[in-house]
Amino acid sequence: MLAHGSGCTICVMKRQLLSGNEAIARGAWEAGVHVGTGYPGTPSTEILEALKDYPEVYTEWSVNEKVALEVGIGASLAGGRTLVTMKHVGVNVAADPLFTISYIGVKGGLVIVSADDPAMHSSQNEQDNRNYAHAARMPMLEPADSQEARDFTRIAFELSEKYDVPFLLRSTTRISHARSIVSVAERAAPGRPAGFYRNIRKFVMIPAYARLRHVAVEERMEAIARDADELSLNRIEEGSGGIGFVTSGVVYQYVREAFPDAPILKLGMVYPLPENLIRTFAKSVETVVVAEELDSFFESRIRAMGIPVRGKEFYPRLGELSPGRVRAPLVRAGLIPATDGGEAPTAPAITVPPRPPALCPGCPHRTVFGLLHELGMKVTGDIGCYTLGALPPFSAMDTCVDMGASIGVAQGIEVAEGDAYKRDTVAVIGDSTFAHSGITGLINAAYNGRESFVIVLDNGTTAMTGMQPNPFSGTRISGEGAFALDYGKLAEAVGIDRERFRTVDAYSKEEVERAVRELATLDKLKLLVVKGPCVILRRKQKKEAS
Amino acid sequence: MTVSNILMVGVGGQGIILASNIFTAATMYAGFDTKKSEIHGMSQRGGSVFSHIRYGQEVFSPVIPEGGAHFVFSLELMEPLRWLDFVNRETVLVSSDKRINPANVDTYPDGVAAELKRIFSTIQIVDVKKLQSKIASATFLNVALLGVLSGFLDLPLPAWETAIGETVPRGTFDKNWSAFTHGRTLSDGATEKRSDTGVIGDKGRAPDRG
Ligand SMILES: Cc1ncc(C[n+]2csc(CCOP(=O)(O)OP(=O)(O)O)c2C)c(N)n1
Fold first, then answer.
1. SS3 (DSSP) at A288
2. What letter does residue B49 receive in the DSSP assignment?
3. What CATH number is given for B3-191 in this structure?
4. Architecture in CATH of A14-228
5. What is the pLDDT of residue A540?
6. Do B158 and A257 touch (CB under 8 A)?
7. CA distance B62 to chain A (A)
8. Could you give the 3-state DSSP secondary structure of residue A12?
9. pLDDT at residue B206 above 50?
């Protein structure tokens, strides 16, 4: 037999090293996906960035996740296989269409990726989006490595069409941003989408029709739950020892690593659960331990089936697990014997100063935050690179909640302070975030007569997530030129007069300072656009040009 | 069922991700199962960056078990001290001597090199100023340092060559390859001293995965 070395064509051709995100894109492409939409967000962003390189697929960065899903719904109802991608908090934004498309169902397979971020490596919370599967009555698959990310995506399209329901595909940071070897195949010849045909009772969710569809939803979920017992994605791996683990996703890998010989029920479909399979597994072992990150999602449901299980008494609801964190609590509880375990880690004898992320040297956001720090204004903030303005040396941000919140929160402060309001509050928001969900807040301020002072930090890109174009950038995901939203006309449309709308150069401290000082004293709604290209973007463009 | 664990660390912008992509590809071309895990996002903005690489017959966890790193590879001198949870008494350190102050810190901590020598029994700290004068530009330092690390490992040279060829930006292969091979000559590792014809001694042969 041959050692598969560098010259081996089998290795080179059929097996590729792919990140989980690239593998999802690959799986979708192989499944014949026609349309991919999404809004960037770590750790989901690279899925669409990989998908855009397949010429057969239409891809777009949508304005936000809600619109991305709505475009995806239209594409599916017109018969196209469709992939919609977002990070976990993006599903909150898309939740409204999500809950109702569950009633309507699909034409072309519709797969919605939720990339969760346990431990909040780059997020504002660590919500567990398995809960959405239950809440929206939608099945969810969860791969455990890049191979499964590719396989499960393909399967999700088939099952979506088979059961007439969108499928959720849950990834986590350790799946999306891990690389491993994937066996790939070619694209199925999907043909063109059949086009949209009227079906009013199924597609128009007025109460009378929605009541009928809800019946179909519950019947469908029961059928999927029954079939889950036979689904090959859920499997029992036999082993020895009294403890059997129920687990999914990357935690499966940690359990396998920590307990090479243990029996495992590995769930590929994390909702609905395969009840009979779980019962069979539970009978075959002395103790069932559920190993899951974040919420007690499996454990609570399995206990509700009347099956005794243990889990959260060992494992935290916060953060990520690891091979060590899966093993240690069971040793401590005396369930498994301690092995020699090696030495305790050495602590450094000197103090290592922390190295938090910071605004880049030369970043255009620096000017504004330097100034806001000097002026001591109350700053309602938003989400993007500029959130780093909350850290020293600037410490010039007072709130950060969700994308777009800066503008609404500033209005709430003004309203509650009433007569005592001193025009000392400013809302600061990035260009991508402003397009995503800041504009609605601005309209609200105009409509309700607020005096809000809104500063848009326009660095020409969505920098935080790795330089995606947005509706203000003048380009699309493909790089081709696009309409760019006009701040001046937008200001005019919400009744902001000439005096109260300015655009200044982010790199000119004097210009920025004059504009901020002057606008802050004025009554009524004000919009200041601070424009200066992101330094990383500039470097990237220079590199591409040379 | 032995798995080799390499922890790569550095500061955002130094090229850890590229170096770890090359490494992972090289392990695949050498015939191993391989996994790598890292965090991007916030860490790009001048923060600490890390990448876990694991390869062997069959790899499960994409993250290195606590205390399980065989090698720590660092592009910055103090960074290895942040990751001692993964280190054991045998862990080998290959590090650049580049010192980068964190934002808002004006003086580099004293005694970092001595502390590293106390903790790691096998250690090679590379003088990057000297190294840089021998390669095309500072851009290729990450790959040159990877060359130093490669000398400690049993991966065949053609696997590295293929991996570098497919990973680095178009038109930069020659500069990267010469940086890599120069780094390899500086390595204290044993592989380099054994042979460098591409087919390394028995230990370095790709396992049969037919
Ligand atoms: C609902 C939601 N979607 C996506 C994200 C991920 N995300 C964080 S910041 C950001 C955009 C930042 O772009 P911009 O506002 O232009 O600011 P910049 O980073 O360029 O300064 C995105 C997409 C998120 N936090 N929440």
1. strand
2. E
3. 3.40.920.10
4. 3-Layer(aba) Sandwich (3.40)
5. 84
6. no
7. 7
8. helix
9. no
| Residue A403 Cβ < 6 Å to ligand 1 | yes
SS3 content of chain B, % helix, strand, coil (to 5): 40, 20, 40
Q: Name the burial class of residue A100, with classes exposed (0-12), middle (13-18) and buried (19+) by CB atoms within 10 angstroms of its CB.
A: middle
Distance from CA of B25 to the nearest CA of A (A): 7
Q: Does A235-332 match A366-545 in CATH topology?
A: yes
Quick one: A385 exposed, middle or buried, by C-beta within 10 A (0-12, 13-18, 19+)? Answer: buried
The response to whether residue A385 sits with its C-beta less than 6 Å from ligand 1 reads yes
Over its C-alpha atoms, chain A yields an Rg (Å, rounded) of 26
Considering only CB atoms, A352 lies closest to which of B1, B81, B161, namely B81
Q: Which CATH superfamily is domain A366-545 in?
A: Thiamin diphosphate (ThDP)-binding fold, Pyr/PP domains (3.40.50.970)
Nearest by CB to A357, from B46, B59, B85: name it: B46
Helices B16-29 and B157-167 cross at an angle (nearest 10°) of 130
**Residues facing residue A501 across a β-bridge:** A527
- Residue type for A100, please? T
Close Cβ partners of B34 (under 8 Å, ≥ 6 residues apart)? A17, A179, A180, A181, B24, B27, B28, B53, B54, B55, B59
The CA distances from residue A62 to A404, A436, B136, in Å, are 16, 9, 42
pLDDT, one tens digit per residue, over A304-318 is: 999 999 999 999 999
A178 and B35: CB-CB below 8 Å?
A: yes
Taking CA atoms only, the protein residue closest to ligand 1 atom 22 is A41
What's the residue count for chain A? Answer: 546
Give how far B201 is from chain A: nearest CA, Å: 15
CA of A468 to the centre of ligand 1 (A): 10
A124 burial (CB, 10 Å; 0-12 / 13-18 / 19+) is middle
CB contact under 8 A, A253 and B82: no
| For range A428-450, the mean pLDDT | 98
Q: Confirm if A302 and A273 have CB atoms less than 8 A apart.
A: yes
User: Which stretches within A350-482 are classed as H helix?
Assistant: 365-375, 405-417, 431-433, 439-447
For B47, which residue in chain A has the nearest alpha carbon?
Answer: A357
Angle ∠(B178,B182,B187) on CA atoms, nearest 5? 145
Number of neighbouring beta carbons within 10 Å of residue A236: 16
Mean pLDDT of the region A439-450: 98
Distance (Å, rounded) from C-alpha A51 to C-alpha A16?
16
SS3 track for A216-254: HHHHHHHHHHHHHCCCCCCEEECCCCCEEEEEEHHHHHH
pLDDT digits (tens, 9 = 90+) for B146-175: 999 999 999 999 999 999 999 999 999 999
Q: Count the Cβ atoms, other than its own, within 10 Å of residue A226.
A: 13
Q: How far apart are CA A242 and CA A285, in angstroms?
A: 6
Q: What residue ranges do the domains of chain A occupy?
A: 14-228, 235-332, 366-545
What the block records as the tokens of B89 is 């008494």
CB within 8 Å of chain B, chain A residues 343-362? 343, 345-360
CATH number for the domain formed by residue range(s) A235-332: 3.40.50.920
Mean pLDDT of B46-57: 93
pLDDT at A189: 84
Tell me which chain B residues have a C-beta less than 8 angstroms from the C-beta of A181.
28, 33-34
B57 close to B76: Cβ distance less than 8 angstroms: no
Contact present, A101 and A166 (Cβ < 8 Å): yes
Which of A1, A6, A359 minimises the CB distance to B45? A359
A464 and B41 within 8 Å at the Cβ level: the answer is: yes
Counting Cα atoms < 13 Å in the Cβ hemisphere of B151 gives 23
